[in-house]
Amino acid sequence: MNPTAEDMLSVSATRADGMTPSEIWPNSSFFNRAISQSVESGAKRIERGVEINLTPRHRIKVDCMITPIIEEEYPTEILVELSDANAYEKVLNEANQQTVQEAAKESIQGMAHEIKNPLGGIRGAAQLLELELENEELKEYTQIIINESDRLRKFIDRMLTPSRVNEKSDLNIHEILEYVVSVVRAENSQNINISKDYDPSIPDVAGDREQIIQAVLNLIRNAVQAIDENGTITLKTRIRRQVTIQNKLNRHVIEVEIIDDGPGIPPEIEAGAFYPMITGRAEGTGLGLSIAQQIIQSHGGLISYEREYDETYFTILLPMD
What is the pTM assigned to this prediction? Predict the structure, then answer.
């Protein structure tokens, strides 16, 4: 068992040594049958698109080749070769998502530029009008114009945050998560049930603190808005090995999962969840996920979405190298 197999099957070679096929794949009876038939017939067997249920939540699809090693006309060993059947599709989806994000980034910047220009004129006109007014009650209206112009300008600046150069430093991902949790709790009057499953061995990672906080904040805010008063949000951290992101193989990446038991993204907009202006909430801007994805991609990482067993999984992958 090589390191890639260890990572794919979520079991170490040391632990797997001496285990039977049914113990390695307890939820996938295919391998028991396929290996037995290969031993009995002495023939190679190839299967494509085989689903492996490693755990109740962890399911992968593989192409499989089972080859008997023949010595003196009898198979003494069996070689099992697995490859991720969805790898090519994942690469295409990732490349497509990156292209869309680049286009979205340019679109948002262009739109923000067009909005900021007249905003300055509106604010300046309101200030000049206020100087000409003697009625203090009327001045309240000009103050509203000025204040709302300032608020909208700050909102646009936040939209453009991912475009600035990353100011990287060593970050503790758990400190980031704890800070964001404190912000979210302060924003909400009701008690939010947040469960934590951290891997304390995860080392620091290089990143722009403000931007990583913004990305995580956008995702956790989404989770808070998705759950009801009895809902739960789970924060989980792990290290993953040999992960390809943006056509680059990373030896180690930090995986942060933000899991909630809300209804998830509506099916009709699921495919465009990370596109700007796509939202399932009437009061939403449709920018939170798009901005979060841009931030993480600018750090060489990726955010993915998955819906399984009535739970929503947003997964952040951040390279450690």
Answer: 0.57
